[in-house]
Amino acid sequence: MTERKGWMELESPDEVVEAICVLFRDRGDAMYDEAVSQSVHGVQAAMWGAREGAPTSLRLAALLHDIGHLLERDPSGGADHPEHDLHHEDLAARFLANWFGPDVTEPIRHHVAAKRYLVSVDPGYLGTLSPASVHSLGLQGGPMSPDEAEAFIALPGAADAVWLRRWDDLAKDSSAPTPAFDEFADLISAHCVMRDRARSGEDSARR
Ligand SMILES: [Fe+2]
Protein backbone atom coordinates (compact mmCIF):
# COMPACT_ATOMS: atom_id res chain seq x y z
CA MET A 1 0.00 0.00 0.00
CA THR A 2 1.29 3.44 -0.90
CA GLU A 3 0.52 4.92 2.51
CA ARG A 4 2.83 2.38 4.16
CA LYS A 5 5.84 3.66 2.23
CA GLY A 6 7.97 6.48 3.53
CA TRP A 7 7.72 9.64 1.48
CA MET A 8 11.22 9.18 0.07
CA GLU A 9 10.37 5.62 -0.98
CA LEU A 10 7.62 6.68 -3.36
CA GLU A 11 8.57 5.57 -6.84
CA SER A 12 6.22 7.29 -9.27
CA PRO A 13 4.09 10.41 -9.64
CA ASP A 14 1.00 8.24 -9.17
CA GLU A 15 2.31 7.09 -5.79
CA VAL A 16 3.11 10.66 -4.76
CA VAL A 17 -0.37 11.87 -5.75
CA GLU A 18 -1.99 9.00 -3.86
CA ALA A 19 0.16 9.61 -0.77
CA ILE A 20 -0.78 13.30 -0.72
CA CYS A 21 -4.47 12.42 -1.11
CA VAL A 22 -4.14 9.90 1.74
CA LEU A 23 -2.48 12.54 3.93
CA PHE A 24 -5.41 14.91 3.39
CA ARG A 25 -7.89 12.03 3.84
CA ASP A 26 -6.28 11.08 7.17
CA ARG A 27 -5.52 14.53 8.57
CA GLY A 28 -7.34 17.04 6.40
CA ASP A 29 -10.47 16.95 8.55
CA ALA A 30 -8.59 18.82 11.27
CA MET A 31 -10.06 22.27 11.53
CA TYR A 32 -8.14 25.08 9.84
CA ASP A 33 -10.05 27.60 11.90
CA GLU A 34 -13.48 27.74 13.48
CA ALA A 35 -15.16 27.62 10.06
CA VAL A 36 -13.53 25.06 7.74
CA SER A 37 -11.23 22.03 7.74
CA GLN A 38 -7.71 21.96 6.33
CA SER A 39 -8.92 20.09 3.22
CA VAL A 40 -11.77 22.51 2.57
CA HIS A 41 -9.42 25.44 3.14
CA GLY A 42 -6.92 24.19 0.56
CA VAL A 43 -9.61 23.32 -1.99
CA GLN A 44 -11.30 26.71 -1.61
CA ALA A 45 -7.95 28.48 -2.04
CA ALA A 46 -7.34 26.50 -5.26
CA MET A 47 -10.84 27.36 -6.46
CA TRP A 48 -10.15 31.05 -5.92
CA GLY A 49 -7.02 30.61 -8.05
CA ALA A 50 -9.09 29.04 -10.81
CA ARG A 51 -11.74 31.74 -10.52
CA GLU A 52 -9.11 34.42 -10.99
CA GLY A 53 -7.44 32.68 -13.95
CA ALA A 54 -4.23 31.68 -12.21
CA PRO A 55 -1.90 29.19 -13.92
CA THR A 56 -2.39 25.61 -12.76
CA SER A 57 0.94 25.60 -10.89
CA LEU A 58 -0.30 28.46 -8.70
CA ARG A 59 -3.68 26.77 -8.21
CA LEU A 60 -1.74 23.73 -7.01
CA ALA A 61 0.34 25.89 -4.68
CA ALA A 62 -2.93 27.22 -3.25
CA LEU A 63 -4.27 23.68 -2.82
CA LEU A 64 -1.18 22.54 -0.91
CA HIS A 65 -0.10 25.78 0.78
CA ASP A 66 -0.86 24.57 4.31
CA ILE A 67 0.33 20.98 3.90
CA GLY A 68 3.01 21.87 6.44
CA HIS A 69 0.33 21.86 9.12
CA LEU A 70 -0.58 18.29 8.21
CA LEU A 71 3.07 17.25 8.34
CA GLU A 72 3.65 18.73 11.76
CA ARG A 73 3.29 16.41 14.71
CA ASP A 74 0.01 17.89 15.81
CA PRO A 75 -2.31 17.75 12.81
CA SER A 76 -5.03 19.63 14.66
CA GLY A 77 -3.03 22.83 14.55
CA GLY A 78 -4.73 25.73 12.84
CA ALA A 79 -2.99 28.25 10.64
CA ASP A 80 -2.44 31.67 12.15
CA HIS A 81 -2.69 30.25 15.62
CA PRO A 82 0.17 31.49 17.81
CA GLU A 83 1.10 28.18 19.38
CA HIS A 84 1.24 26.58 15.96
CA ASP A 85 3.43 29.17 14.29
CA LEU A 86 6.07 26.57 13.48
CA HIS A 87 7.17 27.87 10.08
CA HIS A 88 4.86 25.47 8.31
CA GLU A 89 5.55 27.33 5.07
CA ASP A 90 9.26 26.43 5.09
CA LEU A 91 8.49 22.83 6.01
CA ALA A 92 5.99 22.57 3.15
CA ALA A 93 8.28 24.15 0.56
CA ARG A 94 11.22 21.89 1.45
CA PHE A 95 9.00 18.82 1.47
CA LEU A 96 7.25 19.55 -1.82
CA ALA A 97 10.53 20.39 -3.58
CA ASN A 98 11.09 16.64 -3.73
CA TRP A 99 8.46 16.40 -6.46
CA PHE A 100 7.41 19.88 -7.56
CA GLY A 101 9.11 22.86 -9.13
CA PRO A 102 9.68 26.37 -7.76
CA ASP A 103 6.51 27.63 -9.44
CA VAL A 104 4.69 25.51 -6.83
CA THR A 105 7.05 25.64 -3.85
CA GLU A 106 8.08 29.31 -3.78
CA PRO A 107 4.62 30.86 -3.49
CA ILE A 108 4.02 28.44 -0.61
CA ARG A 109 7.35 29.35 1.01
CA HIS A 110 6.45 33.04 0.94
CA HIS A 111 2.72 32.99 1.71
CA VAL A 112 3.16 33.86 5.39
CA ALA A 113 5.60 36.67 4.67
CA ALA A 114 3.11 37.89 2.06
CA LYS A 115 0.77 38.80 4.89
CA ARG A 116 3.47 41.03 6.40
CA TYR A 117 3.99 42.51 2.92
CA LEU A 118 0.31 43.20 2.32
CA VAL A 119 -0.13 44.89 5.70
CA SER A 120 2.77 47.12 4.74
CA VAL A 121 1.66 48.12 1.22
CA ASP A 122 -2.17 47.87 1.36
CA PRO A 123 -3.72 50.23 3.95
CA GLY A 124 -7.04 48.36 3.91
CA TYR A 125 -5.62 44.87 4.27
CA LEU A 126 -5.19 44.75 8.05
CA GLY A 127 -8.90 45.39 8.54
CA THR A 128 -9.75 42.26 6.55
CA LEU A 129 -7.80 39.90 8.82
CA SER A 130 -9.33 37.77 11.54
CA PRO A 131 -8.39 38.56 15.17
CA ALA A 132 -6.23 35.41 15.29
CA SER A 133 -4.43 36.43 12.10
CA VAL A 134 -3.81 39.94 13.45
CA HIS A 135 -2.39 38.41 16.62
CA SER A 136 -0.07 36.04 14.76
CA LEU A 137 1.13 38.93 12.60
CA GLY A 138 3.10 40.18 15.59
CA LEU A 139 4.68 36.77 16.12
CA GLN A 140 5.60 36.63 12.45
CA GLY A 141 7.48 39.91 12.57
CA GLY A 142 4.78 42.54 12.10
CA PRO A 143 4.41 44.72 8.99
CA MET A 144 7.42 44.90 6.66
CA SER A 145 9.36 48.13 6.48
CA PRO A 146 9.41 49.78 3.02
CA ASP A 147 12.89 48.36 2.40
CA GLU A 148 11.82 44.89 3.51
CA ALA A 149 8.75 45.06 1.27
CA GLU A 150 10.80 46.09 -1.74
CA ALA A 151 13.27 43.25 -1.18
CA PHE A 152 10.48 40.75 -0.57
CA ILE A 153 8.47 41.38 -3.72
CA ALA A 154 11.63 40.94 -5.82
CA LEU A 155 12.07 37.35 -4.59
CA PRO A 156 11.16 34.50 -7.00
CA GLY A 157 7.57 33.50 -6.34
CA ALA A 158 6.79 36.42 -4.03
CA ALA A 159 4.30 38.12 -6.35
CA ASP A 160 2.47 34.80 -6.73
CA ALA A 161 2.60 34.39 -2.95
CA VAL A 162 0.72 37.67 -2.59
CA TRP A 163 -2.05 36.30 -4.81
CA LEU A 164 -2.02 33.05 -2.85
CA ARG A 165 -2.27 35.01 0.39
CA ARG A 166 -5.43 36.78 -0.71
CA TRP A 167 -7.04 33.43 -1.65
CA ASP A 168 -5.81 32.00 1.67
CA ASP A 169 -7.71 34.76 3.47
CA LEU A 170 -10.87 34.08 1.45
CA ALA A 171 -10.82 30.27 1.72
CA LYS A 172 -12.75 30.09 4.99
CA ASP A 173 -16.36 29.91 3.80
CA SER A 174 -18.23 27.14 5.59
CA SER A 175 -21.31 27.68 3.41
CA ALA A 176 -19.58 27.44 0.02
CA PRO A 177 -20.06 24.17 -1.94
CA THR A 178 -16.59 22.63 -1.96
CA PRO A 179 -15.43 19.58 -3.96
CA ALA A 180 -13.52 16.77 -2.26
CA PHE A 181 -9.74 17.08 -2.12
CA ASP A 182 -9.36 13.91 -4.24
CA GLU A 183 -10.97 15.66 -7.18
CA PHE A 184 -7.75 17.66 -7.52
CA ALA A 185 -5.58 14.56 -8.05
CA ASP A 186 -5.11 15.41 -11.73
CA LEU A 187 -3.90 18.90 -10.83
CA ILE A 188 -1.30 17.43 -8.47
CA SER A 189 -0.29 14.82 -11.04
CA ALA A 190 0.17 17.42 -13.79
CA HIS A 191 3.03 19.08 -11.89
CA CYS A 192 4.60 16.09 -10.15
CA VAL A 193 8.07 15.05 -11.28
CA MET A 194 10.30 12.43 -9.67
CA ARG A 195 13.69 13.87 -8.81
CA ASP A 196 16.86 12.12 -9.90
CA ARG A 197 18.02 11.10 -6.45
CA ALA A 198 21.17 9.45 -7.73
CA ARG A 199 22.57 12.89 -8.50
CA SER A 200 21.68 14.44 -5.17
CA GLY A 201 22.84 13.86 -1.64
CA GLU A 202 20.02 15.92 -0.24
CA ASP A 203 17.54 13.11 0.23
CA SER A 204 18.94 11.82 3.44
CA ALA A 205 18.75 15.33 4.89
CA ARG A 206 15.10 15.54 3.94
CA ARG A 207 13.98 12.30 5.54
FE1 LIG B 1 -3.90 28.98 4.75
Notes on the structure:
This protein is 54% helix and 0% strand. The model is unreliable at 74-84 and 198-207 (pLDDT under 50). It is built from twelve helices and no strands. With 207 residues, the protein is mostly helical. α2 packs across α10. The chain has helices at residues 13-27, 38-51, 56-64, 67-71, 88-96, 102-109, 111-121, 131-139, 146-153, 158-170, 185-190, 203-206. Residues 41, 65-66, 79, 168 line the site of fe (ii) ion (FE2).
CATH architectural label? Orthogonal Bundle
What bound compounds does this protein have? fe (ii) ion
- Number of helices, counting only DSSP H or I runs of 4 residues or more: 12
The biggest sheet, with number of strands, parallel, antiparallel or mixed sense and barrel status, is: none
| CATH fold node name | Hypothetical protein af1432
**What separation lies between the terminal Cα atoms?**
19 Å
Q: What portion of residues is helical?
A: 40-55%
**Cα shape:** globular
- For the secondary structure, the number of strands is 0
Unreliable stretches? 74-84, 198-207
CATH top level is: Mainly Alpha
Q: Determine the strand fraction and express it as a percent band.
A: under 5%
Count of discrete domains? 1
Within CATH, the superfamily carries the name Hypothetical protein af1432
SSE sequence, one letter per element? HHHHHHHHHHHH
Give the arrangement of secondary structure elements.
Blueprint (H helix, E strand, L loop, with lengths): L12 H15 L10 H14 L4 H9 L2 H5 L16 H9 L5 H8 L1 H11 L9 H9 L6 H8 L4 H13 L14 H6 L12 H4 L1
The structure holds fe (ii) ion (FE2).
